[in-house]
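Researcher: Structure for this, please.
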Amino acid sequence: MCNSRLRGGWTAAGRLARRGMKVVRVVTTWSLIAAGTALGLGMLVIMFMGTFVWDADAKPAAPSPSPSETGTRITWMPSYQACADGWGSPSIGQRGACSHHGGVTTYYESTPGSMVTWCPPRYQPKTLERAQELLGTQTAGQVACDVDNPDMSKPGLR
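Model: Predicted structure, token format:
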């Protein structure tokens, strides 16, 4: 009799353990089904977006020039650096270079036109015609800064 109770006790515990395992298995299975469905739907959305929304072969539309930028576009490339007062210091690129000469200034050369300016990029003329208007107005042989440029967000040169 004692054996049957013991056996029945183990059997009840075994049934409870098996039922618990079955619940864990069902929950795990449904979790995996839900995750797989979400992943599949996500892939379908990406395929739809790639097919109908994103067009990799289309060329981006070129921005239309604003009325102030009609003319020949000009590109300014860094040409050389010197002290602000014109002194050609051999220590440019090192700390303290041109400290007694107004600091280091970068000069830019235009393409096309081969003109030179020291203006920071946001003050550089955008068209060849505007650069030719500003050529030599302040410094002989150099293009002055375009302070009347409507693209500027703040007044002042530096």
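Researcher: Any notable elements?
Model: The first strand starts at residue 75 and ends at 83. The radius of gyration is 37 Å.
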